[in-house]
Write the structure tokens for this entry.
Amino acid sequence: MLSSLLSYAKPLQLDLSSVNMNQVVQDVREAVSAELKSDSCRLMFVNDLGDKPFVADAEQLRMALTNLVLNAAQASPPESEIVLNAKVDDAHIGNIEISVSDRGRGVPNDLKDKIFKPFFTTRKIGTGLGLANVKKIIELHGGEIEVRSDEGKGAVFTIVLPMEGIES
Ligand SMILES: Nc1ncnc2c1ncn2[C@@H]1O[C@H](COP(=O)(O)OP(=O)(O)OP(=O)(O)O)[C@@H](O)[C@H]1O
Ligand SMILES: [Mg+2]
């Protein structure tokens, strides 16, 4: 609770470098492995970027993706699969798209905006700062995040990030 509150309150400065998605995902896997084991979920990684580098704050991006995967695991039934996909964004030239998909309970339409607000949570022990932090990190990168979901059929969180770093 305290650490997510502090990271939400703290003015964030990005430490940009050339990032390789394979490395980011390896770090995410380590960060979520205990939780995935206890929820018995599997994390699949589909990397259509290969080794193509892009500019980002690797540590902040790792935190953002870790939050999304943990949320996915918490919303999913046991034995289900979470997919993390990274690819070049065909719709927006110069951008990459990273998505986290789950087969969990989904996000009801009337909550799709609220879940990104600080302190909104439906979990007994949640802080509601996870997605607020993710959104803050992605927007600082000049990117965007959105959720698509059919209630009961899972959720897909999609991040679009400029490959060359911040667009201004
Ligand atoms: N993949 C998902 N499927 C269904 N609902 C989700 C998903 N991700 C987030 N949510 C909803 O959004 C709410 C806010 O998420 P957020 O990560 O900000 O906080 P939290 O997970 O409740 O708490 P914390 O991240 O501090 O543990 C969750 O409580 C949950 O209701
Ligand atoms: Mg969370």
Notes: The CA atoms of residues 89 and 96 lie 5 Å apart. The beta strands are 17-19, 42-47, 54-56, 81-88, 95-102, 144-149, 155-162. The pocket of adenosine-5'-triphosphate (ligand 1) is lined by residues 4, 67, 71-72, 75, 102, 104-107, 115, 120-123, 126-132, 155 (CB under 6 Å).
